[in-house]
Amino acid sequence: MTVQNATPALLDHFTPHVDFGLREQLLTGTRPGGIGAKLDELPAAFRAPLEVPSPLRPREFAPGFDEILAHAPWTVLGRRPGRELVLGAAGRFWTAFSAWESIAAREFPAFSRPRRGTIAIAFVHQPYDEEQALLTFEARATTTDPVGYRWAGWYWQAVEPTARSVIRRLLRWVAS
């Protein structure tokens, strides 16, 4: 048996337009109940050490993805207990001094403050076969204008390699 569509459906609802994104997956033998309990600990668990050199800044004047996870004011955008959790944050996150905005889930898809963007992350746990499950982390960033797009594009390209490392460790923690 294979997973037909690993794209998180709730994430599609909150980020219909995507400027930048990345996805990592982990095939795990963890019971669904164990994964669900770990998902319930997020986003508070982002502040716990992920056993990576901290912070993982791609450049000294831009935050590492681990810092965004730890310090963004995450809003729960959607949840399917034990299966899917989608979190979102809005603001300017690609500079050394991030400027976060307070945002409600219903406002997230239409966020449009100039020179800002949104970042949404999803954790999805799907059965794969009788003894395994597929755990997916997907991050999607959107920007509100061409200036924000250029800055976020520069940031996303710089942070992606270290972000993948952070995400892989986070997936292993969720699966443990």
Compose a concise summary of this entry.
It contains four helices and six strands, in the order αβααβββββα.
What is the N-to-C succession of helices and strands?
A: HEHHEEEEEH
**What is the CATH C-level name?**
Alpha Beta
The helix content is 25-40%
CATH architecture term: 2-Layer Sandwich
Query: How many separate structural domains?
Result: 1
Tally of extended strands? Answer: 6
Q: N- to C-terminal separation? A: 23 Å
Shape: globular
Q: What structural class do helix, strand and pairing data support?
A: alpha+beta
Strand content range: 25-35%
- The low-confidence parts are none
Within the CATH hierarchy, at the fold level, what is the topology?
Alpha-D-Glucose-1,6-Bisphosphate, Chain A, domain 4
Backbone CA Rg: 16 Å
* Largest β sheet strand count, sense and barrel closure: 6 strands, antiparallel
Count of DSSP-assigned helices: 4
Q: Mean pLDDT, rounded to whole units?
A: 83
Please give a structural write-up:
The relative contact order is 0.26. The radius of gyration is 16 Å and the shape is globular. The chain has four helices and six strands; from the N terminus they run H-E-H-H-E-E-E-E-E-H. By secondary structure, the chain is α+β, with helices and mostly antiparallel strands. Helices cover 30% and strands 28% of the residues. Strands 1, 2, 3, 4, 5 and 6 form a six-stranded antiparallel beta sheet that branches. It has helices at 9-14, 32-40, 65-71, 146-175, and strands spanning 20-28, 75-80, 84-92, 99-101, 117-127, 133-143. It has one domain: Alpha-D-Glucose-1,6-Bisphosphate, Chain A, domain 4. The mean pLDDT is 83.
